[in-house]
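Hi V.,

You were right to ask for the full record rather than a summary. Here it is.
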Amino acid sequence: MPMRRAITGRSQEPRRRYAEELRLLRTSRGLSLRELAKAAGWDPSLFRKLESGETLGGPEVAEALDQYYGTPGLLLAMWEMAVADPTQFKEQYRRYMTLEAEAVSLWHFGVSTVHGLLQTEAYARELLVLGGYEGAKLEQQVTARAGRRMVLEGEGAPPFRAIMAEAVLRTGLPDAGAWREQLDHLLDVSERRNITLQVLPDSSGPHGLVSTDVMFLRLASGTPVAYLENAYHGELVEENNAVERLQRAYDAMRDQALGPAESRKFILRMLEEVPCEPST
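Predicted structure:
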């Protein structure tokens, strides 16, 4: 059912309401996007995207506009409601996918599963089935996930560093053959010049990203963004201070991980422990 509108005719969906409020505040003062950008010290394209609902920006933008318009706390509160709105999750994931395809470098840490860019078809299928996909939708998602891997292939492919918690490599698939295929695939891709794989052993102890799957993307502009994910929720983080805090935790955790060569040996040991399929 579509979101109802209040008697004012304004949307009650938080993201749209925030965009409408920004547009109303600007137009009621007779400002163009360029004039507002010059006064507030931001790029005009940002305000265009904010008012169209294409992006929410970060809290620092809402705070700056609250100060500029003399609406203390109003826009920041609306921004917080928009970010917390569960209808944003799918939109954030779509935006993340766009940024992933455009990124000039990628860093990932996974605590429970192999990242989608490194998954075999069988591994991806198993996870998608557990996620409730079946029939045509399952096949569509398997194909889409396979297509994502093209990001890391060919000339000009971005560098990708993937750090996996030991638990990722100890949580195999029910089908031993499919699990061996996944481990073999990890060994194969680790030999590519643009891919660095590392393993974080359990013995390394606690770190700042415990229970957190995170991907960092650096865009062509130099801007870093982060995407946090679990089985039921994903969050795109674009606010500079928040991304920097996550990066510091990632850097510290990376120093605890095994180096690439030792990580390959670790994966080989895991592969040796997979039961051989019985001969027919």
